[in-house]
Amino acid sequence: MHDGPLPQQSMIGDEATVLGRDGEIERILRCVTREPGTPQTLLLLGEEGIGRTTVLRHVRERAAADGVLVLSAQGWADDARHAYGCLQQLLAPPVRSEPAALPAAHHRVLTAVPRGDDNPDEAELHAAVTALLDRLAAARPVLVCVDDADLCDRLFLEALFAAARLLAGRAVTMLVAARHESALPGPPPGTATLRLGPLSGTAAAALLDGQPAPPTGRHRLEILAEAEGNPLALVELSRGVQGLRHPPAEHVFGVRLDALPAATRQALLYAAAAGPGEPVAAVMAALRTGDLAVWAPAEAAGLVTLVEHRLVFRHPLARSAAYLGRPAGERQQAHRDLAKAAVLPEVRARHLAATTIGPNAFVAAALEASAWRRGDAVEAAHALEQAARLSSERPERARRLAEALTAAHAVGDPGWVRELYGRVVRESDDPELVCAAAGALAATLSQESAQREAFELLADVSELFPVIDRTLALALAGLAAGIASQSGLPEHTVALATLLDRARQAEESERWHPSAAGPLVRLDTPHTRRALDALVTAVARPQSATGSLSGLGRSHGASPVGPDAPAARAVLAAVAHHADEADVDLGQSRTADDRLRAARAFGLRGWSVLALVETLVAIGRFPAAETVIQDAMTEAAVLRLPRLQADLEAQALTVRALRGTHPAAAPRLTPAVWRAVCLDENRATHARLLRGRGLAALAHGDMEGAWRQLRDLFTADGALLHPFLSARSIAELAVTAQRTGRSAEALPILERVRAEQGERPSTRMTLLLHHATAMVGPDGEAEEHFQLALVNHAANRWPWECAHVRLNYAIRLRRCRRTLEARQQLTTVLETAERLGADALAAAAQRELRASGAAPAPEDDGLLEQLTAQQRQIVQLAARGLSNREIGERLFLSPRTVGSHLYNVYPKLGISSRHQLRDLVQGR
After folding, report:
1. Pairing outcome for strands 41-45 and 192-195
2. Torsions phi, psi of 93, nearest 5?
3. Structure pTM?
């Protein structure tokens, strides 16, 4: 029976099957076109349902469209004549007549009709296949694709591999796909292996959402977790949710399960019921056996493997089949036995819930008490939802639903939040539960992009603030401040004062328990309440933000007083962010981000991650910012939060622009990013998009383009599009204005920004305002403002912005014929840029150094010629901005090998960094 990826072919549409495989397909196609350094034979390996067949189909179609002759064969276990079957598949049209043009001996071997167990002579078959491929390659490139090669006749594979050895250098490429390399004969020298791993989180979510009736809410997240990135598992498990009890693909594994001894089948049921990660000792305790031999038949069948003290199902659908393939009564008994054997209260409660059908106060209380023991928001939300299901009394059920909603909001899945919100408001009219539910829904609406709806929801329930708990009221006012900051709408900013006044009227309530919000969002300390008050005030009156931390009585970077909740740290980080206190901001936000990521709480993390990235970028930690962005982008895509995706895309463009790694020809954000959200009610997103595009244009010397983007950060009359973000781009606007002859237009905007900052602007804003004034203010005052921008050593916390000041100061000095002073500034700029990895800034500094008469770079004529061919390839790719990993994927080398080559190449070229390498290569 064929148990490879064929079911995946029939269940996944043509467009969806290549989701997440662009990199692998491009690597294969580079082999087909025989780019230098690519192998002639490539093994494509991967488990059942991982997508080997669909990748091969796409490669065949792409290659055929490019004029490559494609020969295909597929192994098939049920074909009684498969010893000849694969060879005859290769000879299908349009090459069926080609053997006739070969010598008679070769023609006889290739066209022989198989009889019984007769096999051709090995040497004759090798020679005939080689001659055929050689003839075909003389006319055009040939691609030989073999799928499920582990089910092909070994003699056929040996003939192909022999032909590959003998036709080295010819336009013949072998692409052989199989589950395991061990089932194949020895491949020819130089063969490369490409393993298809699980789909990325983003691609897996897109594939699941593309199904005919995609799951939503908690079920969607459960399928994504259970499928582990396997495309076939994603499709089949989603069909199970639609009501199909035993999806067809489960029967593939069911056949293997049915062949096992009864004791092993029972053990696998208990292991599947226990869930991933449970120790095998716990499963065996429930089975009341200590004999590991019970697992041996399942291991031999390739269904499970014992890894240290844990049992791992080798395929997600094997676990599903082991569980769903048993009757409901047996599954219930398995959970009963696992509950009796469980040591941890949360495990015991979970298994008890699986055995309970109707209301049960004991099990409900156990679920609630243990929900947060592992600190995982997804598990907590599920447990609390289960506790509500088992609650017979309406007040208890409503309270537990509200707690489940709070946890689901922490997770960040909009479908789950909406479902629970509807149930809470139907179950209860308690003011505190209604307000808590409104806060969870408003936060989700904001992250999706609906700022007006989110703010109106909070404004409506704010009338209840005076009669609910003070901490809850202040938390909701703080949430409203976050929404107002994201929207940038003046009416939201004005309304914050009313919400804060109402929150201040609230008192501590005996009905509201701080634990109801869960450990991640506990804000019930006097210090955190003051921080929430300060946050709302900072957003409502931005000029009051400077010095707002001083009222909290905290030294830089200190931990919150009371419960060490990530949300409390995020509130302090937000206050520090608005005050430009980078040290406090970074210290609190990094800790909060780490904790929230570990807790799978992106719904909370989404409120602090953007400010964290902005701070990392502002202080010049570009690699750290890129890491956070990539991780957060995956989470936002999986949870379908388009506004956050757009924000993170804009931040990624900003980092690439500052690092000088954004290709000049590449789009500066695609139209899809702009259309993902309503920019009118998401002005923070709009500001990030504009700044990213402006910096990208600036990095490539497109001053007109940069001016157009940065100018849109301000309205026609000079008002700030966004009160915080627009102000912090004023220096960049002034630079482009001065370069394009628009200083007079920029000067009123500068004065408007200066007035908005009040009498005590932050150290960072003081730096930016002086820089901007030096660029577009009176020429006779420029020198003074440049020096005032640089005189405060505290401004060194923003190294890129300080270096930008020095660069423009040096340009002025050089034009005033003060070249020695200019070189001193430029040397500092270059050192800073190299330390930060800001290649665009470094390149600008080097150009100015050359213009100031500094010694030119070493002559590069003939430098690259001294390198090996492979080293030259690596150098060319590195100069184009590719990382070691990306270069390795193209050349089939490990990132370590690429790094070693570059380490050896730099001294030969007389350089020490990638931006110097790029300048050297591009200058040739």
Report:
1. parallel
2. -55, 145
3. 0.84
